[in-house]
Every structure is written in structure tokens, then in C-alpha cells.
Write a structure and sequence with these properties.
By secondary structure, the chain is mostly beta strands. Helices cover 6% and strands 13% of the residues.
Length: 94
């Protein structure tokens, strides 16, 4: 996946992922990352820090250990996170 350097949209929804693959940090042209309906507990700061073109990350229906407002704040430069819109849609109670 790391060799798909021109990839702009990646849909990994519903794959039971427990971790975000580190190789995603090499997808520098990525604009939309769909990670909903997995088993993620965190979003690594490297994803937010390195992928400057990233506009949207969908994370609903995961097992996030911290609020979406704090995701990526462990990046060395907190202003990096301000470039991105992180979309988190609450899971339905059904």
C-alpha cells in the first residue's frame, strides 16, 4: 500500500482493523481516509502530521480511547492537526 503514492481516497471501512497501518503515512497525496466500522482505539499522530493533503477522516463506530478532539494532538506540532477536518459520526443505538 505504501507504493500507491498518488492515491487520493482510501476506504478501509468495516475491515476489523485494530491498528492503522503505518504505511498509510507514506500516502502523501491522500485527501480522504475512511476508517469507520473498525476496531481502532487510536489514530497515530504520524498520519495527521505527514499527510498534509488529508481533508477528511471518518472514524465512526470504532473503539477510540480518547475523544476526536484530542486525536493527533500528540504530534510534535499541534498546528498540523488544525489543517484537517476530522469527521466523527456517532454510531447509532440500534
Amino acid at each position: 500500500i505504501a507504493q500507491l503514492t498518488q492515491l487520493r481516497e482510501l476506504d478501509l471501512e468495516g475491515n476489523r482493523l485494530r491498528n492503522v497501518p503505518a504505511a498509510l503515512a507514506n500516502l502523501l497525496q491522500l485527501q480522504e481516509l475512511k476508517l469507520a466500522n473498525n476496531e481502532l482505539s487510536d489514530l497515530p499522530a504520524a498520519i495527521i502530521e505527514r499527510i498534509r493533503s488529508l481533508k477528511e477522516i471518518t472514524l465512526q463506530a470504532n473503539h477510540l480511547r480518547r475523544s476526536v478532539e484530542t486525536l493527533g494532538t500528540d504530534a510534535p506540532d499541534d498546528s498540523v492537526r488544525k489543517r484537517h477536518v476530522i469527521q466523527l459520526v456517532p454510531a447509532s443505538d440500534e
